[in-house]
Every structure is written in structure tokens, then in C-alpha cells.
Design brief:
The N and C termini lie far apart (88 Å). The longest helix is centred in the C-terminal third of the chain and has 18 residues. By secondary structure, the chain is mainly alpha-helical.
């Protein structure tokens, strides 16, 4: 007869991780790609207006 399987005890959670993740939140900013795209669109718009 096989011995009963041992259940793994989950590792304890680090209590500081949620605090660090929460600290990352702040003012949102556009990505560099979005800024570049907006600049290109503004340039095209100015060229068409001239």
C-alpha cells in the first residue's frame, strides 16, 4: 500500500509587497509612442493648414 501523499504548505506571503505595488500608483502619463504619434499628427495638421 502506498503512503498517503503529503500536502504542500503554501509559502507565506510577503506582507510588504502590496504596499510597494500600491506606491507605484500615481499620476498617469502618456507613453512615449503616444506622445510621438500626437506630435506627428500635430505636424501634419500644421502642414495642411499652411
Amino acid at each position: 500500500m502506498k503512503p498517503p501523499l503529503k500536502r504542500r504548505v503554501p509559502k507565506p506571503r510577503n506582507p510588504y509587497v502590496p504596499l510597494v505595488i500600491a506606491r507605484k500608483a500615481g499620476a498617469h502619463d502618456k507613453t512615449p509612442g503616444a506622445k510621438r504619434q500626437a506630435e506627428k499628427q500635430a505636424l501634419k495638421k500644421r502642414l495642411v493648414e499652411q
